[in-house]
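Sequence in, structure out. Go.
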Amino acid sequence: MTATLTTAATRISADNKDWLRLKSAAAELQPLQAQDGSVPDAATHADAAAHVDVIIESVHALAPAFPHDAVYLEAVCTDFRTWAAGGFGSPDFLSSLLAFQPQEQRVDGLQHLVVFPMYTQNGSSNRLVEAVLIEVIWPEFIAGLEAGDYSNKLFVPIRFLDFTAGYDTNSAVLFPETVAVSSTPTFTWGAIFADREAARFRRVLKAAAATTQLELPEDAAEMLADQDLTESVFVMWDLIHDRTHMRGDLPFDPFMIKQRMPYFLYSLEELRCDLTAFRESVRIEKDEDADPEARRHARLVQYAIIFDRIFRFAITGSRVRNYDGLGGQLLFAWLHQHHVLHWTDTRLAIDWDQVADSVIALGAEIDDLYWRSIDRPKTAHWLAAYQLIAATVTPNPASLWAKGPDALPLAGPPRGLTDQVLDDEFPLSMFYEALEKKMRPVIESTAGITGRSAL
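Output:
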């Protein structure tokens, strides 16, 4: 499918009157909805129907600006009408979800209007009617990478223009699996808000560098001043990270879909994908035949992965099964224990000439764990994964897992082992406890941030 870039005359801005009508109607509809998206109180159905009418009218008014989404926009209006006519039960927007295929239209600056009953990851867990006005980020060098060694047909990097309340949160993804549907389809795309990722990275890194007295390399410091540059850095990082989940010597399915397992396995999977992105960025940077823009961004991706993981990931969110937090702790401790990162005289320093080799070595440890897992029973793989982490990050002294296999209920089902994992199996170090207290207001301030609000 060939996408037609929305012209300047028809581009929709956040202050467009029809968009604001749609956004307001969704906001008024949300309080009437239950967690599953239904409107259970019959007394409010007339009000709900009026809000749905406004949403449909607004979509029709906005549709001429989105000719590339004409089939989807008509389908979503039909789904809204069907939902209302059926008495506002649990919504089923499968037809419109199947009609929305943004991965087929990856054109830099192309806008989309997206309206669905859906939950928002790291935001609302309720499937409420949410709307987002977005645009695609697709630089030429990214198109070249994706067309070459880093094919990822499902990946859609995007930027916020405006959104309803569910996205005024920490959520930085737009995934089809969040939409209310009657049956689960095959998912063909996944969209990531690179502008939010870049904006919160810049704010957190600036504060963390000042707090720890870390002197940033000159090229890394450029990201603090340039939102557009940082957005394209995160697009490159995400492109390689996202495709890695199903590539490599995997323990059949790294996420063990629909199976309950210790959260530290998710830590290793997410970190594996990031360290693969790091390793590939080192390779691209050294490739003299690569696109100059790709090489420049490859260097910055390495900085972004390290700084985002050790400064933001490690101290963001609660200490309840925080798998991204643990991944950040592991990377920090690994670099410190390999004498690449130093905390001396209350000042943080990093030996940048040694970083690449050390980070790649950690990635190799995880890759070897995965390769060996193919020949191991599930419990043995879990124990080996725990040992890999515990060799670098100190476990909770109260942990049964830390005491080794003899202390664990190995005779029972794997679920019993998962139940023995503490919510905070690997607590923050003293360094991170102190850093978290200083950085908490900054990290909290990034909720709802966008590239535009960060400028």
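Check: Residues 199-454 form one domain. Strands lie at 111-118, 128-136, 155-163, 173-174, 190-193, 341-344, 347-350.
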